[in-house]
């Protein structure tokens, strides 16, 4: 879901976007702990699915796998 939102915001071909929210704000918005959000980002980064140029600049490295995860068809 979030991947689709960010792709629409950044343009369908763009793979780099500004998150605009800190991890704490994102955790609050999602109703999760900061630690959970950080673990999820770390897991996605270690799986080489995302990367961070700066803390708020996210690069989506493997859109098909991220889409499969978002659809519930795959896991990290």
UniProtKB/TrEMBL annotation:
<dbReference type="InterPro" id="IPR036390">
    <property type="entry name" value="WH_DNA-bd_sf"/>
</dbReference>
<dbReference type="Pfam" id="PF13545">
    <property type="entry name" value="HTH_Crp_2"/>
</dbReference>
<dbReference type="GO" id="GO:0006355">
    <property type="term" value="P:regulation of DNA-templated transcription"/>
</dbReference>
<protein>
    <submittedName>
        <fullName>Winged helix-turn-helix domain-containing protein</fullName>
    </submittedName>
</protein>
<feature type="domain" description="HTH crp-type">
    <location>
        <begin position="1"/>
        <end position="64"/>
    </location>
</feature>
<dbReference type="InterPro" id="IPR036388">
    <property type="entry name" value="WH-like_DNA-bd_sf"/>
</dbReference>
<dbReference type="InterPro" id="IPR012318">
    <property type="entry name" value="HTH_CRP"/>
</dbReference>
<dbReference type="GO" id="GO:0003677">
    <property type="term" value="F:DNA binding"/>
</dbReference>
């Amino acid at each position: 879901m979030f991947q689709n939102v960010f792709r629409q915001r950044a343009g369908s071909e763009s793979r780099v976007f500004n998150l605009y929210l800190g991890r704490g704000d994102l955790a609050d918005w999602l109703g999760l702990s900061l630690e959970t959000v950080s673990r999820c980002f770390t897991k996605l980064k270690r799986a080489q699915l995302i990367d961070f140029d700066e803390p708020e600049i996210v690069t989506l490295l493997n859109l098909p796998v991220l889409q499969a995860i978002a659809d519930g068809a795959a896991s990290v």
